TrEMBL record:
Keyword line: Metal-binding
Protein name as catalogued: Glyoxalase
Annotated GO MF terms: metal ion binding; methylmalonyl-CoA epimerase activity
GO biological process: L-methylmalonyl-CoA metabolic process
PANTHER family associated with the record: METHYLMALONYL-COA EPIMERASE, METHYLMALONYL-COA EPIMERASE, MITOCHONDRIAL
Species of the source: Fictibacillus aquaticus
SUPFAM superfamilies (UniProt xref): Glyoxalase/Bleomycin resistance protein/Dihydroxybiphenyl dioxygenase
Pfam family, any one: Glyoxalase_4
Amino acid sequence: MMKLDHTGIAVRRIDEAIEFYTNVLGGKLTERYTSEKPGVETHIAVIQLENQVIELLEPTSKTSPVERFIRQKGKGVHHLAYRVDDLHVAIEEFEARGLTFLKDTYRINPYGRRLIYINPVHTQGTIIELCDYITPE
């Protein structure tokens, strides 16, 4: 089973974005952290809006994938993340159907979310994350 887990949004100024999503839209900031891992290099803020989750992404370096995304496509929706029951099983099932993944994107975030991105050649250019949770939410 798959369901939308969150929407990632690339921003230039995370504090301004947090202000908008909390004060204007009434969301609640539930997590905020920075990942300086190579290939991530991003400030991340998680906003809960009713039954929706928004992940705000601000690049922390010129080599951040989010920085590259903003340069190429501009600010805005960066990715859609779909939660699966078991990430490793889902990867095997998708690979059996001929899809490939950006293997270097596999990681576990500080909150126990395992994730990986599908190669965008299969998604008409949309960045799609698959994820599951290995620790209780």
